[in-house]
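Re: duplicated header lines in exported structure tokens

Our pipeline writes sequence and tokens for each protein into one text file. With two proteins the header for the second block appears twice in some exports. Here is an export where it did not happen, for reference. First protein block:
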Amino acid sequence: QDSKHLHFITSVNAGVASGTVYAGEFGASMRKDFTVVGNIINLAARLMMKAADREPFSFIADNRTAQKADEKCIFEKLPPIELKGFSTPQTVYKFDSKRQLLPKEREQNELFGREREKDFILKAYEECSKGKLYALAIVGDGGIGKSFLVETCTAYLEKKQPYLPMIYSYCYQYEQSTPFFLWRNLIGQLISLTEFLSDDEAYNHLHSLFEEYFPEELEWLPYVLGMMGFSCSKADEIKMVPSLKLKHFFKLMYKLLSVFTAGAPAIFVLEDLHWCDAVSLEFFEYLLKEAKDFPLFLIALSRPDSKLNSFYKDNNIFVLELLPLDRNTVTELLLSLLNIDNPAEDFINRIVSSASGNPCFIEHVARNLKENRTLVPCETGKNKLAKSVETIEIPSSIQTIILSRFNTLSFEEQVICKTASVLGTGFLPAALREIIPEGISDETLDKALVAFEENKIIVRGTEENPVCIFKDSTVRNTVYDTILEATKKELNSAVLESLEKHYEHNISAVVERLVYHAQEAKDYAKVFIYAFEAAEKAYKRFAITDSIAHYNVCLDAYRSGEVKDTEININKIYLKLANAYRKNSDYELAIKTFNMVLSSEKSPLLLAKTWHDLGKCYMEQGKFSTAIENFENALSYVGYHVPEKKIGIIWSNFKSSLMLLFGKKRTLKPGTEKFRKTETRVKLFSTLTKAYVLTANEKLFWSGMEKLMF
């Protein structure tokens, strides 16, 4: 604007784009430049050239920039334009003028009663920035202000250090049995491996990273992609014990974190850890042990949870407990938000008493009073009450306030909002469009999303990341609970069909989501199928706790009586569950489940396997004599009886020696009953020999000879 008045300047044009760039030294050793590269740089340059083509004094911004600057700038949306180097037309905006900023109605924008906690967090970051990993857990009830406290602290640090990496990752209730879900989201943000990439794009992206930073690990790509939620056409050929495989995967993820944070301080905020999956907690524990000299500040936010309390204690994680605010602080917060002169004491006391020290409740009440025009602005910049104090009803809970905002929406908007809640805390507009009732146009849907954001129900996504997110889980759950049970079943069935269609060739990638929606749809046949697949997937990845949860869901579905004509032997599932309990060192439940199979199974081979695995359960507890009894019982089901007396052992050894010297080895065809029986015998003799070695049993030589026979 100033340049227009200077006769010697004939044009000024600018292109502005927002996004991630790569910064560093580029060039040969004799000549280097510090520069930035990336698609965003190219986009800004193309926009600048387009601005110059349009008029002498202008600047053009991309969609993301216009959204971020919308509060302070007025933009004119232009028709999509073709730009060199970009395959699709780009949505662009021309800067018009600065907005005339009016006095802003206050929402909570400063901390009340949390100064001590804020100082503690900032000091903890100072310790971390010196080159030491620091983990902090902030624990408190829903709405107590955990997220706002952390956001205040990170905003303060961001002002001091604009390039400080800060990544937020979330756990969701319906993903709490999805292995590595918390970290796949966080690491994905860090290395630009987002869920919006196709499987091939994800493979190519990760392949280039591995090729550049650790080419010796390229064979791990299929496994890593699987853990990150993608499917890979190449088979996972790593032959390794599952537990060791998982540890190596953790090592790779730590390498990625090290490379992409370049050893500089970084902050990772882990929201709603009470819904975290078991594998993500294991990786959290791995970082605490292996990354002690890494300047990483891990902030975990959770509601009170007994299992998490044990996790925090076992790993020496400092717990900062957020208690309800005292009455004086709540009053101070309320007065700040209402911004009224000489408020009636009785009115203030009624709200404060209902709040029970919960700042989120106070914020919702203040916003509600403004939205229903009970609180209106004055010319002085203050607010005033438009109704008499006696007639104003104070909501009894946050849920009541959320419902009052929800009820201001039109009928169609309410239908869309309820449908969105079925998809979960986060949802894609495109996914929502697929399941909303027929007759609702795209225009109505877009307007509804705007209305939801205006009513503080959701935060809309951007063009770069279109995921819309409910303001918090309380908002989503409150809206979801308004849906009739029959409609819930219908909508979740629609989501189920949509996911099955989109992931037809890669069901494994979303199998945990399928379990959740099948449960909500009460489609127990599908719950049975998908829960079994999810359990198998988790077990193979050594996510034992998650596999136990899924096996139990699978068996619960079977017990509903609605699963017909299954080809899976139910006792085999119980056997898998028992072994998962054993792997998890939950021996009491494992033994109980093994005995349940023994009491009902008829197949000799399955009974042999059950006795064998039960024996391992006792062996791992050091009860060798009981373990040996079980192993010997197992042999009886594959046609083999252990000699009881010493003379029998000697005679059996003699026969075996003769057979080894003069007998012919028979080749058995794989897949036949004889092959399976022989395979089971070999396995049993191997385990039995180990047990005899540990107890110096006189049958040791006999078992060794018998094993050689096969």
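Second protein block, exported in the same file:
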Amino acid sequence: MVKINRHLNVNLQVWRGNVFLFNIIILFFLSLLPIHVLAEEKVNNYPLGLKYEVFRDSTRGVTINEILSGKYNEEFIKSESKYPYFDYTNDAIWLKLEKEVIGEKFNEMTWLEYVDRLEVIDVYFVKSDYTYEVQKGGLYNLGEQKINFRSILFRFDPTDIEVIYIKLIGEELPVSVDTSLYSYEGLIESIKDYKFSSGFFYGFIGALAFYNLFLYFSLRERAYLYYIIYLIAFMLLQFLMNSLDVEYLSENLPVWFIVDAIDYASLLLCVTMVMFGQEFLETKKILPKLHLTLSIFSSLSLFTLLFFWVLPDSITNVIVPLLALIIPILLWISALRVMQMGNRMARLYLLGWTILLVSIILQALSYLDIIAFQAMYFDVIPQIAASIESLLLSLALADKINILKRQREEAQELYTEQLVKEDKMKDDFLFRTSHELKTPLHGIINISQALIEDDDNKKEQLEKKLKLIKSAGYRMSNMVNDILDLAKIKEGLLTIQLSKVDLYLTVSNLFEMFRYIADGKNIKLVNKIDKANRFVIADEDRLIQVFYNLLNNSLKNTNAGSVTISNDVKGGHMYISVEDTGIGIAPHLHEKIFHSYESISTNNDLGNGGLGLGLSISRQLVQLMGGSLDVDWSKEKEGTRFTFSLPISKIESKVYEEVSSIRLPALGATIEEQTSMYSNDMASPMSDRLDILIVDDEVLNVEILKDILVRENYNL
């Protein structure tokens, strides 16, 4: 309970710290806003949107003289917006600003600022005698700028000025109006405020980019690289939206590039935000459908960027804001889905993306003329949102790296534990192997020594001792074969030769092989294989090996009762069961006994009951033959039933004798029985004796071959 409370207290402290940090960030960035944003009207700065009268010249042929003649006075309509917006239009927009509408403050003003980029901005300062001074601005007249600044500035003497007319023409740009009148002091203060806030913004984002670049080179996490690219793309877009290219690069950039630069940067940002979002949220693995959708929209953005000059303006003017709206929404949905799936690293990403998404949606909806145009949608709000979002994304990346680090540490711990476990299993296996091999080896050595020293061995005693030696040899051979088979299975080198196998005769032969052991323990061997359904598709040698392991396991764990083998046909498979009345297997061991090197001791727990390979190899052999092997039923102190399946061989049923013409030697069979069993099959068909040369570096092998071949009447 103390640990839980401590964990909750730590989490609460972290939560409070995050909330406090977030509030500090909001207040800090609000403090950086230019004063005229928080309070619209100042003595030194006078926004003009609502003061204008607007006339739309659809012919673009109306002149200032015609305007001054009063011919179009009735066409001018009072503006109802602080920031009039006319979208993409072929009309020439005329704005009329009368001195009397401004009042006495007009005499303090000496500068007119037009913020938005546009091809043609002609300003006519009309005096009381209807003479006028014209100043040409806009992208086509950047060389006539009196001051290199991000907006277009017009200086005038307010003395005797009665009215100001502004003519706006947009060739490839939407016509939006964000204008102000300034005194000299007001203009200086506005420039100072803007330089400070924009300088802080670009410095902050640049510092984040360099910091994350350092982390990328340290950690080599691709998400950091994509984040840096995203930051650069976002800074580029803000640089262009703030018209800093006009202020600093206008002399070196062609007008057509300045006109389309914001669209280029928007498309590039769409591509980079998808790259970063997909990498950070791991959408390819977690949300494959959304990942594909994001990739499609990213490819569409890249295609539009590459072929921007080929596509008509009517398409690009719609597709760019739509992509800028759809992609952030898809990324926001992806982050929400990832967080709902329990991935905590998506929380900060979702929060940061929500803040930025509001800004992007406002811009896109404004471009599409769905909501009223506001200058701050493209100036102040994006900078604040981007700064907060960039910081939160950086924190989200740090959180992700911490989570990945923790996961790697946990994986390393699990790997270390697995290595320790495997090392212990190796030691246990070596111990069991040495123990299992040592027992029959001692028997062979001791019985052989007794045969050498005892001259009074009678035939029955000799047979009994030789029988024990043979059994020990079989036991050692089976252990070695199990080890070799396991190695072959792991390396994929074990081959299976499938053929038609008579299940009934195979079981009968195996029972003969185990008869000696079963009789010694008073265990009855029962063959219940259905003679009408006796054929399966299997590798006969490997099937015998499976039966051998299962029967050996049953006899070893059964002290009295019976071992029964039966079959049943279901679908296209035959299900073969080996059931005993032994000690049974505890439920929690039903699956574990099929693991390599796991065996059951007499107290029904994992122990030193053998090498623990038989059941593992048997299951894998059955799987290679197209079936499965499992514990079908088991109850402690009552018995166990193993069941495995094999494909059925569909042939006509025939009546077969219950004893095969070729039988397996019984465990414990006498030498005479084995010799007579094999001599019928191995007898030389040739009446003449053959000469055979034996060459082997193992003396034991030479002696065994000599013994066999002499009995078969070969000359050595």
